[in-house]
Amino acid sequence: EAQVTQNPRYLITVTGKKLTVTCSQNMNHEYMSWYRQDPGLGLRQIYYSMNVEVTDKGDVPEGYKVSRKEKRNFPLILESPSPNQTSLYFCASSLYTGRSDGYTFGSGTRLTVV
Amino acid sequence: LAKTTQPISMDSYEGQEVNITCSHNNIATNDYITWYQQFPSQGPRFIIQGYKTKVTNEVASLFIPADRKSSTLSLPRVSLSDTAVYYCLVGDRGTGGFKTIFGAGTRLFVKA
Asked: What confidence tens digit (pLDDT) does each residue in A49-68 have?
């Protein structure tokens, strides 16, 4: 089944403790992206990647890192999480770079930083 | 910088047609406009996409005027299961990459 898999689904952590949220897609998609979703603010893009070893900042990249060493994986790294990073996170992938259609989203990761 | 603006919420009754309009004043010449639907605790899913004029599929229609500064998603005869958040999405190539701009979305509530 074609899908985007995120792990974990739920995570509670403490301020400053490094964490990684994994994202993997099995569709050979070029474009991958991370979003955070907060009440009243919709989905905001954190980072995106147009291909292996090509990543760029979205609208809210502060406090996050990403890497794209393989086409299928696009982990989101929080080196020193803070409470304002408590949010619902979605990973997405798309076959085409440069088009806004055809995104497949993961099931989301609800992160709480205390 | 691309930006989308939609109404925050809308109410409707079962069987009615619902139209949700999104403004995107800075859309690039070659970018499409795409709409997604999101249910609670799920990721958004693709509904429809268009470039100009009118596009129709099995679930919705999309109307885009000639100036492409707005678009209207039309849901015919909504049901309770159409209660969800609807996002219009455009791309932003301003930085040389390709950001995707979702915006805050429109929460549609369908009543019996």
From this structure: 988 999 999 999 999 999 99
